[in-house]
Every structure is written in C-alpha cells, then in structure tokens.
C-alpha cells in the first residue's frame, strides 16, 4: 500500500521536475550569454579595441571575437571558445534588426554596445530575454516569462 502511494506521488512530481530542468537550462544559457556580453564590454574598454559577440542561430552557437592586427580573432582565454545553444532551444533576435543583419553585437572601446535583445525559448515555453535597449545601458536579463506554448 505504501509503495502504491509513493508511486502515485512520484508520478505527479516527475513532470514538474522535467519542467524545472528545462527552465534551468534556459536560465544557464542566458547567464552564459550575459557573462560573455559583460566580459566583451569590459575587455573592449580595457584594451581599447572592439569586441564582438557572434550569434549563429543556424548552427546554434555563439562566440566572442576581438579586433587584432589581422582582422578579428577569438580571444585566447576560455572566453574565446565556441559555445553551443541546447538543441531544443529557439534563439531569436527581438527588435534588433541591425544586430540580426550583422549576426553579432559590437562592443566599442568607449564602453558603448549595439542595442540588441535575444529571446531564448526552451522546448517547454520558458523564455528569457538577454540584452540591452540602448548603447549606453548594461546588458542584463530583462524578462523571464513562460509562454505556455510547448514546442516539438
């Protein structure tokens, strides 16, 4: 009888735990994108050269580049690696036509950055917006909401 009750409780808890894991994955990815944006802005000012945060939606990846002597190159630190969005995540530019057209967000040596916002949407409908609305604003996580729309 006790095992039957325990099985019933677990059957109710498992779907909510799955949603928690998906939500956590979206938050972790948004935090990583935010960390790269903050690092790029900081390094651009310190080094006096442009940094770019590339977003390749088609390949599901993102990375930093900095202006070097022979064009743009990835930094030699761990921030220079290529990161991947989870396969089930939908990445969309939101009101960021210039950044979408270029495929990157530029960070200038004067501390300004392209105004850009990304929506990261998980498979279960969790959406987090990362970005800034004006060139002088800091990047941040602006909204966290659940559309209630389940994908694939």
Description:
The protein is α+β, with helices and mostly antiparallel strands and 152 residues long. The protein has helices at 2-47, 97-102; strands at residues 51-56, 61-68, 71-73, 83-84, 90-93, 104-107, 116-121, 126-132, 140-146. Strands 1, 2, 3, 4 and 6 form a five-stranded antiparallel sheet that branches. Strands 5-7-8-9 form a four-stranded antiparallel sheet. Strand 1 and strand 2 form a beta hairpin.
As residue ranges, the low-confidence spans are: none
End-to-end CA span: 37 Å
Instruction: Give the SSE order as H and E letters.
Output: HEEEEEHEEEE
- Using only C-alpha atoms, the radius of gyration works out to 19 Å
Largest sheet, strands/sense/barrel:
5 strands, antiparallel
What is the share of helical residues?
A: 25-40%
Q: Briefly note the structural class of the backbone.
A: alpha+beta
Mean pLDDT: 87
Keywords:
about 150 residues; alpha+beta; 5-stranded antiparallel sheet; 2 helices; 9 strands; about 35% helix; about 30% strand; elongated
Write the layout of secondary structure elements.
Blueprint: H1 2-47, E1 51-56, E2 61-68, E3 71-73, E4 83-84, E5 90-93, H2 97-102, E6 104-107, E7 116-121, E8 126-132, E9 140-146
């Amino acid at each position: 009888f006790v095992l039957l009750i325990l099985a019933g409780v677990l059957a109710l808890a498992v779907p909510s735990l799955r949603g928690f894991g998906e939500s956590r994955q979206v938050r972790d990815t948004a935090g990583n994108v935010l960390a790269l944006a903050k690092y790029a802005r900081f390094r651009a000012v310190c080094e006096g050269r442009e940094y770019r945060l590339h977003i390749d939606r088609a390949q599901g990846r993102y990375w930093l580049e900095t202006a070097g002597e022979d064009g743009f190159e990835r930094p030699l630190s761990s921030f220079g690696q290529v990161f991947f969005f989870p396969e089930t995540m939908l990445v969309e530019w939101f009101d960021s036509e210039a950044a979408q057209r270029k495929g990157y967000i530029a960070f200038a040596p004067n501390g300004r950055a392209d105004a850009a916002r990304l929506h990261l949407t998980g498979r279960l409908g969790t959406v987090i917006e990362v970005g800034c609305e004006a060139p002088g604003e800091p990047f941040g996580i602006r909204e966290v909401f659940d559309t209630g729309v389940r994908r694939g």
